Amino acid sequence: MKGIPRPFRPRKFIHYQTQILLILVCAISLIFFYQSLNYYFFQDDWFVLNWVRTGDFASLFRFRTDIIYWRPLSMPVFFFLNYKLFGLNPSGYHFIIIIFHLVNSVLVYHLFRTLKFTQFVSSILSLMYATASFHFVSLSWLSTTSYVIGPTFIFATIILFLKNRNLFALFAFLLAVSSSELAFTVIPIALILKKISRATFKQLLPYIVIAFIYLVARFSISRPPVTGEYALSLDFQIFRTFFWYFVWFFNIPEAFSTILFFNQLKSSVVALLPFSRYIVLPAILVTIFILAFFYTRQNFRVFIKGVSLFIAGLMPVIFFPKHVYPMYLVITSLGILYIIGSILQRIRNKLLIFTFAILWIVSSFLTISFYRNSHWIKNEQAISKAYVDFMKVHFANPSSNSVFIFKSANIKFAQRYNFVLVETEDTLKQSLNDQDAIEVIYNDSTLRSFYVNNDNSASLLNNGAEIYEVHPREN
C-alpha cells in the first residue's frame, strides 16, 4: 500500500525558505517601528552632537568624567559618522539604527539555529524579538543606540563562540565592549550555553582578562554614581525587579510599573482598569507560557537554563532597583525565548503556534501604539523639533556670544506641534539639553541659553550681549 503523498512544495521555495521567513520577520518589524524614523533629536542627543561636531575623532574614544558610560562605537562614533552623512537630519540616523535592529533579529534566528532549534521555531523566536515592544525606546531615542548596536556584536560573539570561531568571536567581543556594558553578559551566557569544562574556561580566559582591564580602567578614571537612581540594593526589591522585566517581555506597558504596587493591590487594580485593553493579551500570553511549560513536560534543565540566561542578561543592572527599564531586555530576553523555543519544539500543531504568534503580534502592536500616544519620548522630541524650527525661521544668523532666552509656548502653538509643556517642570530645558541644541544648530560654542522658569535672566539685559527671545506663539 502506497503511503500518503506529501504536500507539493516548489523546490525554489524550500531552497529560499529561510530567507523568505526572515524577510517576513523584518517586514513586520518595519511596520511596527517605521514611525520612529520621524523622531527628532532631544535631550542627550544634543550633548553627543555637540561633542562630535568639533571633529576631534580621538576624543570619541577617551574616558570622560562628566558621563557615566564609555560606549565609543555606539554613541560618539555612531553620531560622528551619521553627522558626516546626514547632518542634522535624524531620519538617516534612525534608518541606520533600524537596520541594526533587523540584523539583530536575524542574528537571534541564527543563534537559536546554532542551539539546534528547528528552522520554524527559530523563525518564531526571531519574530518575537523583532516585534517586542521593549525596543520602542531604543529605536525612538538616538541616545539609546547602545541597546541596538551593542546586541549586534553581543549576539555575533555568542554565535561565533559556540561555533568555536575563537578569533572572530574575540574581535566581535571587543566591538561589543566598545558599544555597551551589556557586553560582559557574554561571559556567563557562554558558560550557560556551552558545556562547563576546563576547555570552556580556557576559551573564555581572554574575555575575562578584557573585562578585568576594562573595569580597572573605568573605576580608576571615575567611579560611577551609586546614589539616587543608581543606588545599589541587595534586598527583596530584586524580586519586584525580576517581575517587571518578566511581564515587560510579554508587552505590558512600562508605565504600569508606576501604577501597580503590591502593598496597595486593590487601589492599583482600580487604577489599571481603564487600561485593561493593554493588559488582557499580555496576561493571556503569560498564562499560555506557564500552562504550555507544564503541558509539554519540559525538562527541569530547560527551566534552569532559561532562568539562568534571564538572570545573566540582567547582571549589569539587576542591583539597581530604581534604574529599571524595558530596554534592558535586549539581551536578557534570550532566557525567556529559550524556554518558549523549548516549548514550541514539543508542540506539533503548527496552528497553535501560529495562534500564539498572532496573539504576540497584536499584543506588541497595541503596546507600541500606546507608547506612540503617551510616552514622554514623543512629547520631548516634539518640543525639541518645534523650538528648533522656530529658531531657524526667526533667528537665522545670531552673532557670537548671543544669549537665547527661552519661554513657554502658548497653548495654540503647543497644540499645533502636538506637545505639552508643564510650567513646574524643566521639560523644555531637558528637551534642548540646556544650550547644547543652539550650539549645534548654529555651530557656535559661544552661544548661551536661559530659561525663564529656571534662571534669572534680568541681569543679562545690561551685559552687552545680543539677546534673542524664543517665545513661540500663535494667535
Automatic annotation (TrEMBL):
The keyword Membrane applies. The chain crosses the membrane at residues 20-42, 92-112, 119-138, 144-162, 169-192, 204-221, 242-263, 275-295, 302-319, 325-344, 351-371. Keywords: Membrane, Transmembrane, Transmembrane helix. It comes from the Bacteria. The keyword Membrane applies. This is Glycosyltransferase RgtA/B/C/D-like domain-containing protein. It comes from Candidatus Curtissbacteria bacterium RIFCSPHIGHO2_01_FULL_40_12.
